[in-house]
Amino acid sequence: MRWSLILGATLAGLALIAAALSWVWTPYDVTQMAIADKLKPPSAAHWLGTDHFGRDILSMIMVGARTSIAVAVVAVGIGMGIGVPLGLIAAANRGSWLDEIIMRGNDLVFAFPSLVIAILITAALGPSAVNAIIAIGIFNIPVFARVTRAGAMPLWTLDYIRAAEVAGKRATRISVEHILPNIANLLIVQGTIQFSLGILAEAGLSYVGLGAQPPTPSWGRMLAEAQTMVTLAPHVAIIPGLAIIITVLGLNLLGDGLRDALDPRLREGR
Amino acid sequence: MLRYALRQLISLGLSLLVASLLIFLVVELVPGDPATFMLGTGAQPDTIAALRQQLGLDLPLPVRYLHWLGGILQGDLGHSFTYKTPISQIMLDRMQVSLPLALMSLMLAILVAFPIGIHAAANRGKASDTAVMGVTQIGISLPNFWFAMLLVLVFAARLRWFPAGGFPGWSHPAAALKSLLLPAIALALPQAAILARVLRSALIETLDQDYIRTARAKGLTQGQALRRHALRNAMIPVLTIMGMQFSFLLAGAIIIENVFFLPGIGRLIFQAITQRDLIVVQSAVLVLVAAVILITFLVDLAYALVDPRLRRR
Fold it and tell me: Could you tell me where this protein is found in the cell (chain B) (predicted)?
């Protein structure tokens, strides 16, 4: 399944390039309105058409990519930064009360309807991109804790880890020096998946008005604004959705491809 | 088994208690005073103070938490500030939309996922399997509210087969079902894609087992072995996912309910947050979380009952 790696990297790369390019160049200024040119379908002047304020949709998609990717990346960072150490601690103390508390805490967070809590958190802290990051990041923590623990548990029974233990190395050092490098693959794959889920979650939050605030373009809010005009100018609603799908699909394929590439046991027929 | 059940029951109680505390604290963080919100910013300070006292908002935090918890233990979810009715009544009303919607989308998801998941597993590695995997990959990547907008565009605005939103109530059963169908489809599509993939990989895992080889050796075809033996053994991960999906559909429909203006639980919570009707948020979220925790508990227990291997942990 090497094609999934290539296709995934291409699609996800497209979004990354669009986001990176938007820092230095966009076809038009995204804050510049031209009411006379509103709701124009795709043309040579505006490749993806214009929205209800006459803003260039391609430019908004590019800047929106920046918002989506930034939110998702930092949310994954929060999840990894807190979840991985928790998972390592749980695995190092497997079977103890500490392990039990960490895992029960994980189950508890999983039981919360994530979207409802994300909405609650953004409502409590005020709608903004930063608070969307916090809300999405919190739900990444138990995912990474669980993956880390599951990956680390079997390693603790291996001879070379035992040897390190007997030699007097502390559990913390073993976790960082021996366990972590061995589960890096797992974490990269899970990171890609959470990245794509983060993009979807950010789109959902900004669609209901709790993500990045105007005038910062975001894919979710573009969709929300397009909703009332969907019959007049379908492209205004279709294009941001396609941008989300391309990015999320790319990341999902990339995750699948990486998993196959990094774990040869899965390569045959799965 | 009894010891296992007892241990699970204790941790269930603890989980519910911690969940209630967490929800209470997060809701407390929401800025804005409900009394000020209800009376408007122009109200006299002593009027606001009187209302705060009437609502019990002047009591210290721990006392309010215990009041709330005590009420819930007696089946009283509290009173809504804005609707002036018991929250249990509002929840029951909203459940009449959310529950059928969740059931409908789960049923749709199952109807789509099972045939294609089984087909893909039986034809692993062939072109049709690759096609199923590709399509489900797109299904997972789709934001469901965007798909909902496209459904409205085609089936409501252009073809006029379905209403674009709203809910007529169950006194018109046909119209009610009709208005739930598009949202149910929008919710079901990504869930169907996830379910089909889980089913496929669970089936492929069991198809590699020795007892399937035995079944094939005694003369069953691949399809017969799959239906009679593999499917049953692949059901544990599939049921787990379905349990999670059901609770997701119950609570996670917030955005879809907003697209279609459906008066469900999700929209209730969303509106209650904007109206600072915090007691509604608190109680409604707790009911949802409790439902998820309970479903998980029952599913775990059922597995342990059926499969003794699972009792060890």
Answer: Cell membrane
